[in-house]
Amino acid sequence: MLLFLLRRLGVLLPTFIGVTAIAFALVHLIPGDPLEMLAGERGMDPLRHARLMHEMGFDLPLWQQYIDYIDKVLHGDLGLSINTHQPVLGEFMTLFPATIELSLCAMGFAVLVGLPAGMLAAVRRGTLLDHSVMGLSLTGYSMPIFWWALLLILLFSVQLGWTPVSGRISVMFWVEPVTGFMLIDTLLAGDWDAFWSALHHLVLPAIVLGTIPLAVIARMTRSSMMEVIREDYIRVARAKGLSPQRVIFVHALRNALIPVVTVIGLQTGTLLAGAILTETIFAWPGVGKWLIDSISRRDYPAVQGGILLVAAIVMLVNLLVDVLYGLINPRIRHAR
Amino acid sequence: MALLDIEDLSVEFGTDERPFRAVDNVSLHLERGEVLGVVGESGSGKSVTSLALMGLIDFPGRVRAARLEFAGEDVLALPERARRRLIGKDIAMVFQDPMGSLDPCYTVGYQIMETLAAHQGGSRRERRRRTLELLEQVGIPDPTARFSAYPHQLSGGMSQRVVIAMAIACNPALLIADEPTTALDVTIQAQILDLLAELQARNRMGLILITHDLAVVAETCQRIVVMYAGQIVEEGAVAEVFAAPLHPYTAALLASLPERSQGRELYALPGVVPGQYDRPQGCLLNPRCPHASEHCRQAAPALRTLDQRRVRCHTPLDAAGRPQS
Fold this sequence. Notes:
The complex is a heterodimer of chains A (about 325) and B (about 325).
Chain A: H1 2-29, H2 34-39, H3 46-55, H4 62-74, H5 88-123, H6 128-142, H7 145-159, H8 182-188, H9 192-229, H10 232-239, H11 244-282, H12 287-296, H13 300-328, H14 330-335
Helix pairs in contact in A: 1-13, 5-6, 5-9, 5-11, 6-9, 7-9, 7-11, 8-9, 9-11, 10-11, 11-12, 11-13, 12-13
Chain B: E1 4-14, E2 19-30, E3 35-39, H1 46-54, E4 62-64, E5 67-70, E6 73-74, H2 80-86, E7 91-94, H3 98-101, H4 108-119, H5 124-137, H6 143-147, H7 156-167, E8 174-178, H8 186-203, E9 206-211, H9 214-220, E10 223-228, E11 231-237, H10 238-243, H11 248-255, H12 294-298, E12 304-306, E13 309-311
Parallel strand pairs in B: 3-9, 3-10, 7-8, 8-9
Antiparallel strand pairs in B: 1-2, 1-4, 1-5, 5-6, 10-11, 11-13, 12-13
GO biological process, one term (chain B): transmembrane transport
Membrane topology (chain B): Peripheral membrane protein
Pfam families (chain B): ABC_tran, oligo_HPY
């Protein structure tokens, strides 16, 4: 097990270097620089601009800047945000719980709806139910996030007035941030009204963000389930006189879950990418919105640090999924 | 009362317009403690017959029978739930591929205990004790260690022993073994057959042994049913059928046994079992039958009784292997 983890960590190293290099290059490829963005329309005296750029080290050759940056990163220093002069890591960590809260709820929604939908479609394959589930999931998968978000806002927030349009909680409430998760913090404070407000704010973004993973999980569960149902051991389970529920939930589902868990892990990348759009549309104060804002301010350290951290999280989740995989599948557990 | 009484069992697949009869009016009869061999090439409907009996034919398959009685009880009339109480408990089945028959995610012990839990209840401790006893009975060394083994840690022979333990867990009155040795090594095959024969004798189970190995039938069975393209073509006591087959198909099967070969070359019946789209008119065997006449190509023969034996042929063979007319 230890050897397995070490091997996996070894593979992560080149990925890390690649991610930092690409993030670094892309950010510097965008026209403009942080100072121009700060100065705005009025512009800045070219001499002053050059002096400041020199002070910040942005006049050095790109490769030198990159090496300096990597050196600092390896020492655990992601630099200061140009905009706020706060450490990038600190900013990220304050905003990250909001993104996790949103992503977890989105994933929870996707799994809770996607798994049963896929299972039902597999068990009742060829029926109207199967076709509708598959049709809907294809639609959900193909729906651009920003468009889907706007449609839902129009219906539920504007027409029906059921949910707020944006934000994380109503401005009426102030909750002491203990965990950074609004749902938990409001409960810890014992403030039910605040909890409801936070929940109302969370519903739409979570649905929007969870739609694509939901579609992928539903389709994957269906195909995996249909494959497993044809296996001999399912027929043997039925020949033992077990109830259909037991055959499906105990024998078919567990085997069918093996590939689905992998897919759920892979979806975390999609989820964090989707979070950028979703957070921007719903003005959700998370990492995604912060990244977008940092890009438009050409806040180089913030963007680079943000991408690096997000990449690290995706890799970590995938590592976790591999471990989880072994827990579900005894064949893998024993192979180590 | 007979243990198993099947009359005119048919299983159809395909659409209503183009139905395909995988099993065509099969009648089977089995007494308590009797061992019946069912033989035939692949595609002759042996497995489908047993799956129909177990109630494991799924939509779009259709099962019909004039009578399907187990221990005097009309199985087809039973509601789903009552039928499930029967299968796995009183009628159990062992399948062809032992490695695929066990769920890879659960331990051997869990899967045997599951059968016990479904039919007998009892405490966990009792089930565990009974499971260990079963593992011992099917000849698995060190049952306590094997109890918590996963299927992928077992060999094919061991897996088949576990599957058999699972099948006999509730002391079934009828055990159907569907080619239980096909996927195993020759040396293991004999062991598994010995085990089945021993368990059959000890528990006085009815045993239906589906196989395409005639040597196995000769060794273990009292009666033999030969199937071809979903129909029974011959039935009788093993000794009589082996001594003087009435049906040309049975004769061909027997002639292709290595120990019966004359000369250097092994006899092989040309052609294959007809499928859904190439059913011949008349007798289903006529394109492959060495004795087929014009009559055989026109009219399908009925299954008729010839002193204690049944045969589906217009011109059954005599003791010398020549068609009688």
